[in-house]
Amino acid sequence: MKTPQLTAYNKAVRDSYALILKQARQMLGAIEQEELRFILEREDKSAKIETIIHELINPLLYLRLEHHSDDNYAIHFGFEQVSNSVELSSITTQFTRILYKQTSKDFTTVDIEGCVRTDWFINSPSAMYEYIEERGLKHHTFKQLPYKPKAAKRKLKAVA
Length: 160
Hints:
This protein has helices at 4-29, 86-102, 125-135, 151-159, and strands at residues 38-43, 51-57, 61-67, 73-79, 141-144. By secondary structure, it is α+β, with helices and mostly antiparallel strands.
C-alpha cells in the first residue's frame, strides 16, 4: 500500500526527471553534429513495479526513470567519456550537474537525493545505443532531435 510520503517522493522524482530530461534534450539539440542528435526512447505508461518508466539513450548521454522493486522511483544515468572535444565534454559535465542539482534536497520540497542510483552506471552510452539499434528497436523508438543552436551561436551566425 502506497503511503502519502511514498506518493510524494515518487511524484518529486518524476517531476525532477522531467526537468532533467527537458534540459538534456535541449543540450543534445544544440549539437551541430547530426548523428549526436539521434536518440532511442522508451516509454512505459503503466509504471508498475520493476518497470522502466522512461529511458533515453543517445551516443553521448543516458537517462532512465525506473520503478524499483521497493516501490520507489529511481534515476539511472550515464555519459560517454569525452577527451577530444571541449563542446561535448561541456555537455556531459553540465548534464551531471543538472542531474544532481534537480535532485538535491536544496532544490526539491521532498528529499529525493537517494533516487539517483549508481548500482549500475552506463559508461559507454554509444555502445549501448549501437547495440540496441543493431538488435532492433523492440522497446525503443528512434528519433532525431531538431538542431536548435544556443542563443549565443545563433547571434554569432547572424552577425557573420
